[in-house]
Amino acid sequence: MIEIFTENLLLVPCSLDIAKSLVFHRKELEKRSPITIPQNWPSPLITGILPFYIEKLEKDENQYGWGLWLIINYADKRIIGDIYLHGKPDKKGNVQLTYTMNRDYQKTNLTYEAVDALIDWLVTQADAKKVLMECSDSNYQSIQLFEKLGMRCTKKDGKFLTWELRKVI
After folding, report:
1. Considering the entire predicted model, what is its pTM?
2. Which of 151, 115, 116 is nearest to 132 (CA)?
3. Residue 61 gets which letter from DSSP?
């Protein structure tokens, strides 16, 4: 099992069992879990992706770690967000990721701590050479986060910006 520990957080890939429980047995999962699962988690984006994520893990267990990650706050013992890797690196070594953070934690450094830790893990993976993220040109919180992470804006398509961070070899 892959686990990433930071000063305040635990990041873990969502297992097939947890993903299935979120879809089919959420109330039971909430009762049994030692970690609080907020009512507003996962986000609508992740809720829509979960059936495909489950199917991907059922077909190939090597996909574990290349999809949904849970962001867990130690102090609160609760899920405070997630990071979604859009699969394994492509032929060029590109890995795209998306993150969602609970509103109560958006203005803290925990978003930076989580995304930075996952990027640190990503760059240790041999096939990953570049991390890509996107946001709208009016999403100032994401823009500040990407700049703090050392990412560069490499493309503007209408109101959407593409940011990248290359692995230093």
Report:
1. 0.93
2. 151
3. G
